Amino acid sequence: MSGAATMAALVAAAPVSAQERPDQKAFFGLYKQLVETNTTLSAGSCTQAAAQIGARLKAAGFPEADLISFSVPDHPKEGGLVAILPGSDPARKPMLLLAHLDVVEANRADWERDPFTLVEEGGYYYGRGTIDDKAQAAIWADTLIRLRTAGPRPKRTIKLALTCGEETTFAWNGAQWLAQNKPDLLAAEFALNEGGSGRLDATGRREALGLQVGEKAAQNYTFVATNPGGHSSQPVPLNAIYQLADAVKAVQGYEFPVRFTDTTRAYFTATAKTGASAMGDAITRLLADPTDKAADAIVSADKAFHSTLRTTCVATLLKAGHAENALPQRATANVNCRIFPGETVDGTLATLRRLAGPTVTVTANQPVRPIAVPPPLNPAIVEPARKLAAKHFPGVPMAPFMSTGATDGVFMGAIGIPVYGVPGMFVDRDGSGTHGLNERVRVRSLYDARDYLFDLVRVYAG
Question: Quick one: which of 423, 409, 389, 440 has its CA closest to 161?
């Protein structure tokens, strides 16, 4: 075993050392309060969570002028906070730290533990938002507090935007509102956001790190089939349910073409060198010829690779009929698409309409969000992240990648701020319950990510 591998094994096997330092205890208080503040759209309040963090920043010495709370009258519980730590060098453009406070709904009856009580158990913290995205929000707020109280003053101004509405497409979105109404408040040379990755293997050993450089756009489409209906005792060939089913099956059977960005090409090139021989060979062939169907079939057997290669569309909701003894008059489906950079909402709509055929109408749902602007593979961003990762997580490779999901970064890209999803938070292979039941984060992963990201912000801030 190499020296780097030996060090990685020792680090992975080390016991949890959470809250041993005073600064870790202070961070835990902030994190616990944030997780235990319900910020679901249905029953929670991002405004309350933002105010609690604002109070902590104020106690750390931030003046009122540098703490800007925001909301709108129609959405009083969906507010957020922008905090500013002025730098010493006005010639350097600011950097922006972005995180969202809202979380996916969590039904207590479905969870083994109260989703809004932070529970430590078996080396994990359990609770809704323990990863998505309250870990990031807490780390960013804690980073500003540490920089404000301990010094030295960073050369680059650091801005923090904590927003609401990221998890629900139809919700009022604080990041979008800021970008459209307060772009000068957010103005920055670049932004650091969620979306980066840290992958653990089945034994909990650190396996890989990813710096997110680009993402897909999320867009929903509605399929509708209508029919005069009638009595179910006299069925006819034209049936709204069957028409819709045929359209949805056509979507299931369609593969969008393989595409590459600079980021995904770099990602797959690196993956081809480290993966199994059959997969590596198939990736190499696909990089050379994106129309190679045989290579595509091998690579796309991995669901993550499949989604990274192309636009994907999948049916997620169905509703049909009005009575058990009547022919259906209406059948609808929601098809959720993740659109590859460079492709468009309208172009995807045209493809879906062709697949659905003339008897099913297809429309793009509102809101139609911006298509993500792929940020450049900027060495000034990539290399510090890589070098610090080698120090904090020795022996763990890091590569840029494109997220198959979507974040509020699309709104920053729309106003000229390139957004990068930072690595550092290692999660289990099942995603650690993110968006599902019993969301959790390994205690050690949380504190290690906090230390890595603090050092990363300090490097970028000079």
Answer: 409
User: Does the domain formed by 217-256+311-364 have CATH 3.30.70.360?
Assistant: yes
Integer Cα distance of 176 and 380 in angstroms: 27
Cα 448 to Cα 425: distance, rounded to the nearest angstrom:
8
CATH class held by domain 3-215+372-461 = alpha beta
Q: Which two tokens stand for residue 299?
A: 């690579």
Which residues, in sequence order, are bridge partners of residue 81?
A: 69, 162
The pTM of the full predicted model, rounded to 2 decimals, is: 0.88
Virtual torsion, Cα 157, 145, 211, 444, nearest 10 deg: 170
Residues 250/251/252/256 CA torsion (nearest 10 deg): 120
DSSP 410: H
Task: Order the strands of the 119-121 sheet from edge to edge.
Answer: 119-121, 124-126, 440-442
Q: Among residues 28, 153, 38, which one has the least CA distance to residue 450?
A: 28
Tokens at 424, concatenated: 């550092």
Domain(s) of CATH 3.40.630.10: residues in the chain = 3-215+372-461
Residue 194 · residue 423 · CB < 8 Å:
no
* Nearest alpha carbon to residue 449 among 396, 395, 393: 393
Task: Give me the residues paired with residue 218 across strands.
Answer: 338
DSSP strand pairing (440-442 vs 312-320): unpaired
Mean pLDDT of successive 10-residue stretches along the chain, which has 462 residues: 39 50 93 98 98 98 98 97 97 97 96 97 97 97 96 93 94 97 98 94 92 94 97 96 98 98 93 84 97 97 95 98 97 97 96 98 93 90 97 94 92 95 94 93 96 98 94
